[in-house]
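Re: the 443-residue chain
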Amino acid sequence: MKYSKRIEETLQDKGIQIRDTIKIKKQRKTYEGILLPNTVMSNPECITIKLDNGYNIGINYEGVEKIEKTREKEERKQETRKTPKQNTSKPPISIISTGGTISSEVEYETGAVQPTLTAEEILAKVPEVANHAYIRNYTQVSKIASEDMNPKTWVKLAETIKKELNEGSRGVVITHGTDTMHYTAAALTFMLPNLTKPVIITGSQRSIDRGSTDAAMNLICSTISAAKSNIGEVGIVMHATMNDDHCFYIRGTKAKKMHTSRRDTFRPINNIPIAKISPEGKITKLSDHREYEDKEVTSKAAFEEKTAILKMYPGADPQIMKHYEEKNYAGYILEGTGLGHVPSNGKKTWIPTIKKAVNKGKVVVGATQCTYGRVNPNVYRNLRRLYHEAGAIPAQDMTPETAYVKLGWLLATEKNTEKVKEKMQQNLSGEVTERSTPNTYLY
């Protein structure tokens, strides 16, 4: 979509092209920035420019006194930031890029944000990371938004991480979209079962080309965690508060995205963070963790994609599960209400359908859709029917997302169904806590 005819004619008369730097005078104020294309959502009578601080503004053409070009777009190409010179004596780490907002820029023709940057280009935008580590390798596993992440990419990531850690990297930083980051963090935790080195997943809520981006501090804190921490676990490292003061290192199996847009969106669920990371380099331990140890990393990277999460709600019809059964699904996470309930009486009782699936060798796990707390199969009569009569097993205090990833991984790596059920109830990688404590609620 173009600007209005009169704006287009003015720009043409002045010899101004898109992405030239221009100066606009209006009502005793002067605005200077890069001229951007008009988007499909923009008013054709408004001129859009990007200011030096990274923000975009629209200026209504009515009342504009003067427009002039101050720089041509070709001149700015020389100002592109280069990857900083590195110090090979610093701790070696690897950066793996998958896509997401942290590796995205605004596509000004549409106004949308799309993944475009490689790991090396991200580093060029945040050169401070070179103060803390030597980036010995960059790898791009994918260039996708996190809603398009899938188990095949998890497997590829796990194998890539194993390779990087076994070839000399002390730790790994993965840039990832935030929407499904907690799924990936849980998947890598299980797929790298003997991990004793830091594997950090980070992202941003605002694209890296915006003045309000949270990407820079998240990358710096993640680099510090990978290069200098004594933590040997998969974790998410992102803003702990809305301010640029410090990040949390949250265990991969206990993290969850809690807000669509806040910087401090990731919180630990039924747990507290492993550590607090400051962008100046200070690491403050907050809870017990697996210690760093320089030993070989192995992987057990596989996933049964015929695993499903079924959300319970008033009036939920068990025919939903029958649909999956017709497609021969191997396992289910039932995201139940409260302590793990499913509709258990009347015409839409789920109990017979669940029992039939279990008798056919399928694994059915009950989780809670409550954000905090744990499933308890012994409190109510209906719960006893689900877990003792129908044969479902409780997810304890795992989030539904972690339970889903764990079940899909176990179904792919264990041949015996009873072994899968047994391990689903064991704490393999910090996903199950022995008891719930008050300090973990709304941490």
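The CA atoms of residues 21 and 34 lie 4 Å apart.
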